Amino acid sequence: MPAYRHIFFDLDHTLWDFHKNSEETLHELYHTFNLSALGAKSATAFIETYKEINHHLWDGYHKGTITKEQLRHSRFRNAFKSSGINGEHIADDFGNEYLRVSPTKPHLLPNAMQVLDYLSSKYTMSIITNGFAEVQFVKLKHARIEHFFSHVFISEIIGYQKPDVRIFEHATNAVGVKPSQTMMVGDNFATDIVGAIQAGIDHIYFNPEQTPHNLSVQKEIFDLHELMTLL
Ligand SMILES: [Mg+2]
User: Fold this and answer.
1) Which end of the chain is more exposed for a tag (fewer CB within 10 A), N or C?
2) How many angstroms separate the alpha carbon of residue 189 from the centre of ligand 1?
3) Distance (Å) from CA 207 to ligand 1 centroid
4) What is the extent of the structural domain holding 192?
């Protein structure tokens, strides 16, 4: 392997356990807002519906067909409607609470802390994320991992989203390393891996669900602890 100097990490679903943190928040808010009294069948059914709608809207956001405001405005309104919840009057409050609470949840993917601790003695590291600026810093702080990273590159601030090669160029310039001296670790092939390939950055595809695929990747891991033998 080349002599790497700097490791780029994606944040959501790679280090920060988005799934667990989000579900925990939705469960809490389901009860706080008493959605069962407003017609919801179950927390589980509501969360599944929300996730499907949110996923679809995020697709639209990534493709540029909807704005961040439209995404935030629509996701709980649509989820309430699809779940038979009579809750248009509280959808915005629910959405605001979700945005406030979920980034404060501290759950990381298994072995993330141990691996970051190990890698931090060998490399400098930073985050490249397509998430929203006001929540990504909160996540890093509450998960107690912000001190591991020299930089946090957020698409909203830089002006380009992964896989746009310009966010990777911006990051390598800011860190002061050549693309060939860096490694990108991420769970999303279309954004993290495709972007890294286009930018001339080596990559490790993190596939914790072990989803079968026939994508062409340099390295694939199922558990973050594998990074301790690869890097
Ligand atoms: Mg991700």
Assistant:
1) N
2) 9
3) 10
4) 6-17+108-230
Cα 186 to averaged position of ligand 1 atoms, centre (Å): 6
The total number of structural domains that make up the chain: 2
Q: What is the 3-state secondary structure (H, E, C) of the chain?
A: CCCCCEEEECCECCCECHHHHHHHHHHHHHHHCCHHHHCCCCHHHHHHHHHHHHHHHHHHHHHCCCCHHHHHHHHHHHHHHHCCCCCHHHHHHHHHHHHHHHHHCCCECCCHHHHHHHHHCCCEEEEEECCCHHHHHHHHHHCCCHHHCCEEEEHHHHCCCCCCHHHHHHHHHHHCCCHHHEEEEECCHHHHHHHHHHHCCEEEEECCCCCCCCCCCCEEECCHHHHHHHC
**Shared domain check, 91 and 54:** yes
Ligand 1 centroid–CA 124 distance in Å is 20
Tens digit of each residue's pLDDT, the chain (231 residues): 568 999 999 999 999 999 999 999 999 999 999 999 999 999 999 999 999 999 999 899 888 999 989 999 999 999 999 999 998 899 999 999 999 999 999 999 999 999 999 999 999 999 999 988 999 999 999 999 999 999 999 999 999 999 999 999 999 999 999 999 999 999 999 999 999 999 999 999 999 999 999 999 999 999 999 999 999
Distance from Cα 81 to the centre of ligand 1, integer Å:
28
CA of 96 to the centre of ligand 1 (A): 22
